[in-house]
């Protein structure tokens, strides 16, 4: 059978573990990178590549009107 002292120690230990896990969860949640920011960065880099290739291809072709 479990004694009152053992039950008290177990409750304090499990409560302490739960509090540490809560603090760790909040720390990781606050410091994570947002998925939206990563998508925006990828979209901005792909847009700048498309604009630079589009500008170079349009600059190479010259048209004259008479």
From TrEMBL:
Domain of life: Eukaryota
Cellular component terms (Gene Ontology): oligosaccharyltransferase complex
Transmembrane segments: 7-28
Pfam family for this entry, one: Ost4
GO biological process, one term: protein N-linked glycosylation via asparagine
Main localization category: endoplasmic reticulum
Keywords: Endoplasmic reticulum, Membrane, Signal-anchor, Transmembrane, Transmembrane helix
Membrane association type: Single-pass type III membrane protein
InterPro entries referenced in this protein's UniProt entry, alphabetically: Oligosaccaryltransferase, OST4, Ost4p_sf
Family: Belongs to the OST4 family.
Annotated protein name in UniProt: Dolichyl-diphosphooligosaccharide--protein glycosyltransferase subunit 4
Organism: Aspergillus vadensis (strain CBS 113365 / IMI 142717 / IBT 24658)
